[in-house]
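W.,

You were right to be curious about this one. When I first looked at the sequence I had no strong expectations either way, so I just let the prediction run and decided to look at it fresh. Below is the sequence, 254 residues in total, followed by the output.
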Amino acid sequence: MRPFDLGKLRAAAGGRPVSLFLDFDGTLSPHVPDGDLAAPLPEAREALAALARTPGVRVSVVSGRPVADLSRMVALKGVTYAGNHGLVIEGPGVEFEHPLSMVAGRAVAVAEGLIRERLKGHPGARVRQNGLTLSLNVGLMSASGRRAVARVVDSLTDELRWLRLRWQKGYLGWDLIPEIGWTKGDAVAHLMARTPDAFAIAIGDGLSDEPMFERVRADGLAVRVGRARSSAADWFLSGPADVAGLLHALARPR
């Protein structure tokens, strides 16, 4: 992976319209122990607002959080929100919900009861039902508590597989995601099809962002927040502050 180079981005884009796809946690917002307190950096939100008003630029936030949370936290008009790992998309001129979302929602509801029952002895673990997905946050727990919850997570893997659900490891916990052949990469592909001539830029920091990177790199640019030994992204930025800097640079007239 190479440090991000704005000059090479501009050269690769070649003056084409731009479709920008951004993760939320760890990308627009720093990771925080209590996920309910997450918020985009003010400078990042300011730049997003400018980009959303820029002709030829489409801005999408693609996250494991529900659309309602994203629209409340980012709170910008002209931005498309793809929530629940892209299972639901809402934005200017687009409204999408995966055809299997009802089935997925029922499976997650069943899993929630099972997970809460197994976690009764671990009060610091926070389970949040996000409609079509579920998050398990251990950011406020001790190291030993996190290890204990990890064992519970492992013990549930086979049972959840019968519900066509899988765990996705995150920075401060896990997401429970439906196994229905749909990822953030598919959501990005769905949005890219609306502007096939645009140059796509995807920015994210976690495993769930890798399908997004894989989708854009053929005719765009994939940028990982934080350097990794293995990633589909060719470029990296150090943290959300650098992401905000990049967004401001993109918002400036060329």
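Here's what jumped out at me. The radius of gyration is 18 Å. And, maybe more interesting for your project: The mean pLDDT is 94.

Coffee later to discuss?

I.
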